[in-house]
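Hi there,

I know you've been waiting on this one. I reran it after we fixed the sequence typo, so this is the corrected version. Both the input and the resulting structure follow.
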Amino acid sequence: MKKQFEYEKDRPKKDRIRDELINCIKKYNVKKILILESPKFEIVKRLPNIKFLVYEKNYKTYMAMQKTKTKFKNIYLTRGNVANFKSSKLKADVIYLDFCGTFSGEKDNILALKDKIKVSKFFIVTFSPHEPRQKFEGISNFYLSIAGRLQRLLDMRLDIVFGEDYYDTCPMVTIGFEPKINNLEV
């Protein structure tokens, strides 16, 4: 029961994070967003003039989203892993990977999208900070750790534009980056 209370308690923070991300997105000239979206299309419904490329790999969730998406004209819903977007000829101005898992569990998906991330204007990720078999050192260290790990994985500079943590079904961290075209310089 305590988890339910904590989840409800942090719901306003999660909504505030969405507000902040939408404000960040509005600063860029955005036409398309690649997103892992909730079945309620929380981001989509607040940005009606932007095209959304939504991926969902869970069949039941995908079917529920199919029914809901009829309310929106700006959604292209695809069933499958978001990593499949790597072979698409489409480009996304914003890539928002709202993962439910850890960095180590999702790094292959991110690596698959490396070329798409490099040409995006804004890159957002959400992870759980609890990596298996690793001691959790705190949220502030996690931001820096994720930024460094993503930069090494993608071999590019990522400037942190936004970062916030919240509690959902477990602790989560959302970080927004501005990708830089030039590769990392050491």
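Quick highlight: Confidence is low (pLDDT under 50) at residues 1-9.

Best,
R. S.
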